[in-house]
């Protein structure tokens, strides 16, 4: 009786219960604990607790989708993981099951709820689709309307570049999807449009005409109410609320080296810029927007990759930055012998792919990369009237 009373005293304290749940390693364990009773569900699913849990346990990287170039099919590279995540890793790789030749499916973007935006070939033409292999393994993807059809409906007769953007969070795989289109007519200007997916088709949300946008677009990223368009010369920023456009110049040292830098999201107020300079120095800069005004770049860190790789007994060489993920702060690096995932926060290094010998081959092995992390936020059970969990 005394032991039961002591246990009840501990588990009846929400603060102590939260500290206990915080020691669970994965968000999937939170879901299992939440099934115990309504109190545990209430504590585990509260926004404040989830924010704390995420800060301690960032979403675990499951692996990378490596999109094949001309010389090999696309594939999934699992990251090192404990046995508890083996099922999730298998589901992540299952997106290729319906396509015997993986080269015909390219994973372009991923989201923390496990949603994937892919491009695949049907009858020799490319189409975009949304898959959710972690939540719905084996289920067919949802085909999106053609971006070229949306371009023709615009009435603008000129060249068009299209980019589908996944929102950070959504109640379903399609809600909040955006199609960004950049039209050029040969003059020093561009028309930039945002279309939103609704009622099964793309509908115009907003547009702007600007002289600020360079011709060569490298990357498009949505961060809160802003869209960042990276070019070789600078970064074009479009504020979707105020419909204003601005340009961010790169840091002075940015132009050292051949590779272009990559952006991370900080939050709605800024971005990180990361790049390998001098072939072995990983540089990180931060740029924030303060009170609606663009600030300046601040150097945050310089990491000697030769020192990191030597410390792990790995070979060194000329490093190429192939992907940068904002959470949990990892980068994908390529050197002559293979591809490595480096976690900037924990300073851990993992080899993901051993490069086969290249004999008379000049094409890149892989064209692009997309990571997949564990689902966040976790999907908790819904209490139905008459079937509530026990207190």
Domain tally? 2
Structural class by secondary-structure content: alpha+beta
Question: Tally the helices: what do you get?
Answer: 8
Strand order of the largest sheet: 3-4-5-6
Give the integer mean of the pLDDT values.
83
Q: Identify low-pLDDT runs.
A: none
User: Any idea what the CATH architecture of the largest domain is?
Assistant: 6 Propeller
First-last Cα distance: 20 Å
Pfam families: Beta-prop_AT5G49610-like
Organism: Eragrostis curvula (weeping love grass)
Protein name: F-box protein AT5G49610-like beta-propeller domain-containing protein
Domain F-box protein AT5G49610-like beta-propeller: 112-380
Q: What would you say this structure looks like, in words?
A:
The protein has 8 helices and 23 strands. The protein is globular. It has a 4-stranded antiparallel β-sheet, with no helix packed on it. The chain has a 4-stranded antiparallel β-sheet with strand order 7-8-9-10, covered by helices on one side. The protein has a 4-stranded antiparallel β-sheet with strand order 11-12-13-14, with no helix packed on it. The protein has 2 domains: 1-57, no CATH class; 58-373, Neuraminidase (6 Propeller), CATH 2.120.10. It is α+β, with helices and mostly antiparallel strands and 391 residues long. The mean pLDDT is 83. Helix 3 runs antiparallel to helix 4. The chain has helices spanning 2-11, 14-21, 27-34, 38-44, 47-56, 86-93, 147-153, 305-311; strands spanning 61-68, 75-78, 105-110, 116-122, 125-131, 142-143, 159-165, 178-184, 190-198, 201-210, 217-223, 226-231, 234-239, 244-249, 262-267, 270-277, 281-290, 293-304, 320-325, 330-335, 338-343, 348-354, 366-373. It comes from Eragrostis curvula. Residues 112-380 form the F-box protein AT5G49610-like beta-propeller domain. This is F-box protein AT5G49610-like beta-propeller domain-containing protein. It holds the Pfam family Beta-prop_AT5G49610-like.
